[in-house]
Amino acid sequence: MGRMVPWADTLQRLRETxxxxxxxxxxxxxxxxxxxxxxxxxxxQLLQEALAEDLRKSDFESEVSEISISLAEVKxxxxxxxxxxxxxxxxxxxxxQLDSAFIHKEPYGLVLIIAPWxxxxxxxxxxxxxxxxxxxxxxxxxxxxxxxxxxxxxxxLPRYLDPSCFAVVLGGPQxxxxxxxxxxxxxxxxxxxxxxxxxxxxxxxxxxPVTLELGGKNPCYVHDDCDPQTTANRVAFxxxxxxxxxxxxxxxxxxxxxxxxxxxxxxxxxxxxFFGADPQVSPDLGRIISDRHFQRLQGLLRCGRVAxxxxxxxxxxxxxxxxxxxxxxxxxxxxxxxxxxxxxxxxVGSMDEAIEFIRRREKPLALYAFSQSSQVVRRVLAGxxxxxxxxxxxxxxxTLASLPFGGVGASGIGHYHGxxxxxxxxHHRACLLRPSGLEKVYGLRYPPYxxxxxxxxxxxxxxxxxxxxxx
Length: 471
Description:
Layout: H1 7-20, H2 26-42, H3 44-55, H4 59-85, E1 88-89, E2 100-107, E3 110-114, H5 122-133, E4 137-141, H6 147-155, E5 166-168, H7 173-179, E6 186-190, H8 193-205, E7 210-213, E8 219-222, H9 228-240, E9 252-255, H10 257-275, H11 291-300, E10 305-308, E11 312-313, E12 318-319, E13 322-325, E14 342-347, H12 351-359, E15 366-370, H13 374-383, E16 388-391, E17 412-413, H14 419-424, E18 426-433, H15 439-442, H16 451-460
Helix pairs in contact: 2-4, 2-5, 3-4, 3-6, 4-5, 9-10
């Protein structure tokens, strides 16, 4: 592992860059983004090897969910950088007709990005794209749990970026806690709600704004009119992708008893087609990240009744694609985010009961509804709240940079992806520039006050297209 630069020196170096404004010009930002693009292109094999070591990720999964998504974000930012940076003109009222009014996007300054282990390239570099595009200096804290990827990010990535505006800091929970005592201008955290509270509490001491990308239990409602095999294919693909270690994976399935009976053989068929008769020898099924996470998941296998799978191997950190039935809401598997290849099925009597079940729990990061009727899908959409929503598929909404990605309530604060990343890492500064003359016109607002002056001023301050007045 590369030598860790003492924080004091690192932070001092980056703060000096912030104070000089060196990272602000468009050309400087462009060079950093181009460096990030080169890093991804030059080190693709190295990154795939690291992901395989950490999570037994197949090259297919690494390419689709990590490298290509990160590259697409860099290319989008490079293509649109000047347009995103431009001052945004706004509508004016009569009182400001002769003024220039606009929103100016400026960097926050020194940004801390704390990344997780489950998609250690995507969830590290996509926020970094936004932070660099917005002209910030960045301290990057990759996860110590995905060790091989952390090593590449620590030893190789800094060669591609300007050391005056970028640094990688290493360590575990203790070091992260110490790092959070420092004052940053913005903190972007991806991880669990439990640690999210610690981050938010530390940020509050400095009144530092935060984006928290947290998890939650993502419901998946399956209506009685669904084709069982199509639904099973899609649910199984997204549940068992990355061995289920995905914050937006369907976490539990809600359906009627009849639908469950039709889904179980369809799920078994999908799992066998995807991973063969013995999924443990499939090159396409990942592994659990650590012994600690494996032990936790093994405990969840005791909930309900195993209908499919259930096998595990601690030596290999392997857990078979598993479906649980007869699951009670009070059991552990329904109390915490699973983050593994386990899918509990909870029976409900109707769509309304499913909606009610979802509504009485914390708001999830993602929500899925399967039905051949668009009215059913839209009723679930209208009756619930979640960070994102997808009808008749898994987390495909995440692949669109034109959609914001983020949680709501317990599943997070703020959002990013595409232009939303640039906006997240930019302070939107309200600006009004007034000519220095015309004092006779502007003098109407000065004392002594009169009813005539008040009427004139209220009329002049009316918002265009709105009968309300701004006082």
